[in-house]
Amino acid sequence: MKLKKYILAGVFSVSATTIVSAQYKEPEKKDKVEIFRPEAVFDSLQARKMLAKGSAVIKGIAYTKQKHPLGYSVPFSPRILANKMKVVLLPVTSYFEEWYRLRKDKENIRKKRFVYLSDQAYRYRLEAITNSDGEFTFPDMLPGRYFLQGMLNYTLKGKYNQYTGSGYNGYGGRTDYYQQKDYAVDHEDRIEEFVEVKENGEVVKVKLH
User: Fold this and answer.
1) Which of 99, 78, 70 is nearest to 192 (CA)?
2) Rounded mean pLDDT of 121-131?
3) How many whole angstroms separate alpha carbon 206 and alpha carbon 99?
4) Is the pTM of the predicted complex or chain greater than 0.70?
5) Cβ distance 203 to 164 under 8 Å?
6) How far apart are CA 38 and CA 108, in angstroms?
7) Of 4, 112, 116, 142, which has the fewest Cβ atoms less than 10 A away?
8) What is the pLDDT of residues 20-73, one digit of tens each?
9) How far does CA 159 lie from the centroid of its chain?
10) Keyword set for this entry (predicted)?
């Protein structure tokens, strides 16, 4: 009798974990991704007019500051200049304003919550590439409000002492031994800023960080 009970338990255990096919499969909670979208309709005519040629210039410098391994900024750390980074300029339309408010309220990368910017809205943009000093320029701009964004990738390198073991003498004393090691940590900072051009012919300077 004990043997029969054991066999039955084994059968139930296997059947509970058997993978079966179906039309729909419920994802694990840790794998779920939430996508939010603006309710406003994107106005391509408004965006096109805002990106027409004017006579103003947006000049800027893009940089970030060194981050602690836990993610927060390090006080008085030197600038890390954005070398050969793409800077994207988007016109601040009514659709974009709703997208940005929604992103501030809903987006949480750790919880896999993202706010979707439509492909059509992203199509109406200008792009610039920084030089080795992080400088960039958008010429021929009309008066209006714009949003600048870039993804700055960099690697922090340094040294640390790695514990390799301990030694003991005949009197019970202990000596710890360390070996110096190199480390490299990759980072990606999303840097962004709003900028407003008030009139044709002006030069607007901005710090993108």
Assistant:
1) 99
2) 98
3) 23
4) yes
5) no
6) 16
7) 4
8) 678 888 777 777 889 999 999 999 999 999 999 999 999 999 999 877 655 566
9) 26
10) Signal
User: Could you identify the residue written with the tokens 């360390």?
Assistant: 178
Q: Structure tokens of 43?
A: 């106005």
Long-range contacts of range 155-158, CB-CB < 8 Å, 24 or more positions apart?
A: 155/184, 155/185, 155/186, 155/187, 156/66, 156/67, 156/184, 156/185, 156/187, 157/182, 157/183, 157/184, 158/182, 158/183
Q: Which residues of 88-122 are buried (b: 16+ CB within 10 A; e: fewer)?
A: ebbbbbebbebbbebbeeeeeeeeeeebebeeebe
Q: How far apart are CA 58 and CA 142, in angstroms?
A: 10
